Amino acid sequence: MSERILRVALVQDRDHGDTGANLANIETRVAEAAARGAKLVLLQELHNGAYFCQHEHCDEFDRAEPIPGPSTERLGALAKKHGVVLVSSLFERRAAGLYHNTAVVFETDGSIAGKYRKMHIPDDPGFYEKFYFTPGDLGFEPIDTSVGRLGVLVCWDQWYPEGARLMALAGAELLLYPTAIGWDPDDADDEKRRQRDAWILSHRGHAVANGLPVLSCNRIGHEPSPLGASGIDFWGSSHVLGPQGEFLAEAGTDAAEVLVVDVDLRRSERVRRIWPFLRDRRIDAYQDLLRRYRD
Q1: Which of 39, 155, 223, 250 is catalytic?
Q2: Which of these, 265, 149, 270, lies nearest to 213 by C-alpha position?
Q3: Burial group, residue 72, by CB count within 10 angstroms (0-12, 13-18, 19+)
Q4: What UniProt keywords are attached to this protein's entry (predicted)?
Q5: Which domains does the chain have, with CATH numbers?
Q6: pLDDT in tens, 155-177
Q7: Which of 39, 45, 129, 217 is flagged as catalytic?
Q8: What radius of gyration, in Å, describes the C-alpha atoms of the chain?
Q9: What is the rounded distance in angstroms from the CA atom of residue 187 to the CA atom of residue 167?
Q10: Known catalytic residue at 192
Q11: Is 155 a catalytic residue?
């Protein structure tokens, strides 16, 4: 079976202070990725600014914008300029009082190929997303592009094998996760290691269980809490995995980086022939998955 090589790039970076500065930095990073031959570029979650969900405040809704809107116009032009498929992550204003955490995929001609609204919404200390985001209503539908069928999910979705599986069952060729995740600086070092290891293991599990490459792009840097708490140290570690969960590339924990690597999309076929997990699924016995819990 011949190879089908796709060069991908993940843009791992910190918040640069405001939308204009972040988008200008993204333009520089995407240009670098394209110059290095990337045809698919993945950005981190909510890349236009700080991770504002550390508190609940109505003024933060001013960050949201419609799709299409100013950011999609600028990002679409960027994709077209460099001839890349670009996966972005925006705070969508759908209507007054109705907002989503939305990934938007741009085709090489600058058009919007599709979007995905984050389905699983956390509400944890420092991650108060339920205040801001309505759960997605577009389902787990891959987005067709010139480089392949992309199973785009967002951050908290990474802890749910159901989302990855449904994307795979719908024919996704890669799983992509724009992400914003990090440590509480006050946590002990062993707790920090456990959390980061669990995050990476979840992605490796998605790759193995579905026989697909996985791309996860996280942010870096310390972002203080508006509540006076310790804030978040985003741990970077953006990575690209092969269909057996193997690392193809991994970024560091604290430096901006454009991670570029070649992915052989044909390997999924070869791996699924020796590990036919989709064939052996007991779809006649999974009805209880539709229940919250088996009491």
Answers
A1: 155
A2: 265
A3: buried
A4: Acyltransferase, Hydrolase, Lipoprotein, Transferase
A5: 5-290 (3.60.110.10)
A6: 999 999 999 999 999 999 999 99
A7: 45
A8: 18
A9: 34
A10: no
A11: yes
Q: Rounded to whole angstroms, how far apart are CA atoms 85 and 143?
A: 11
* Degrees, nearest 5: CA angle 200-263-2: 140
Which position among 118, 173, 223, 257 bears the catalytic label?
Answer: 118
Number of continuous H segments (helices) and E segments (strands) in the chain: 5, 17
Q: Is the peptide bond before 161 cis (omega within 30 degrees of 0)?
A: no
Tokens 């944890």: give the residue.
Answer: 124
Q: Which residues pair with 151 in a beta bridge?
A: 175
pTM over 0.90: yes
Place of tokens 């999609």: 72
133-159, pLDDT tens digit by residue? Answer: 999 999 999 999 999 999 999 999 999
Question: Closest Cα to residue 7, out of 40, 43, 30, 42?
Answer: 40
Alpha carbon 113 to its chain centroid, in Å, reads 16
Which residue pairs from 124-131 have beta carbons closer than 8 angstroms and sit at least 24 positions apart in sequence? 125/184, 125/229, 126/53, 126/54, 126/184, 126/225, 126/229, 126/231, 126/232, 127/53, 127/54, 127/156, 128/53, 128/54, 128/55, 128/56, 129/53, 129/101, 129/156, 131/53, 131/56
**Crossing angle of helices 161-169 and 189-210, rounded to 10°:** 20
Number of residues that this document lists for the chain: 295
Using DSSP's 3-state secondary structure scheme, residue 279 falls into: coil
End-to-end CA distance of the chain: 48
pLDDT band at 20 (very low <50, low <70, confident <90, very high): very high
What would the two tokens of residue 209 be? 């269980």
Give SS3 for 3.
coil
141, burial (CB in 10 Å: exposed 0-12, middle 13-18, buried 19+): middle
DSSP 101-117: EEEEEE-TTS-EEEEEE
